[in-house]
Write a structure and sequence with these properties.
The protein contains 4 helices and 4 strands, in the order αβαββααβ. By secondary structure, it is largely without helices or strands. It has a two-stranded antiparallel ribbon with strand order 1-4. The longest helix is centred in the N-terminal third of the chain and has 4 residues.
């Protein structure tokens, strides 16, 4: 008996993150974009999402973090669907120049360090420009990578 896999069952061609080697490395990053269906919930490092109590559309890795008294300022926790971490992250501060940027700590914007979502978003100017220099690379299947062909005289074994 041989199981045949579709390439999307083994790789995550639609997963775009800043550290592709972090996908499936044994460490659960329970925040987006790593913790998403496109990234296989961090390459199966994390359990699939669970519904948070009192928030039917809030799907998170650890529902116990919702409304626990501490703002978990990462997506998907700090979203409208999750009641902005069950109210823990409801103290939003104004971010000058980004009226649609909803974050609980505006000092992280344009501080010289690229922070994860929600700071690294279009609404927050990609962390006030801190994240614009990072090149995001999709995690691609080996069959989608360019193949280098050697002429017989150039093959590595011909030297």
């Amino acid at each position: 008996f041989v199981k045949v896999y579709h390439v999307t069952e083994l790789f995550y061609p639609h997963c775009i993150v800043d550290m592709a080697r972090g996908i499936g490395n044994g460490y659960c990053r329970d925040y987006e974009p790593y913790y998403s269906a496109a990234c296989g919930y961090d390459g199966s490092d994390c359990e699939p999402p669970k519904i948070a109590e009192n928030y039917a559309e809030c799907l998170v890795h650890n529902p116990n973090l919702i409304n626990d008294g501490t703002c978990y300022d990462k997506l998907p926790y700090n979203t409208e669907k999750c009641g902005f971490d069950g109210g823990d992250c409801s103290n939003f501060t104004d971010v000058k120049g980004y009226p649609d940027c909803l974050v609980s700590n505006s000092t992280k914007i344009r501080d010289g360090k690229c922070d994860d979502l929600p700071y690294n978003s279009r609404e927050c100017g990609f962390d006030g420009g801190d994240c614009l220099t990072i090149k995001f690379t999709p995690t691609t299947a080996p069959s989608e990578r360019p193949i280098t062909e050697f002429a017989p005289s150039q093959s590595p074994s011909a030297s």
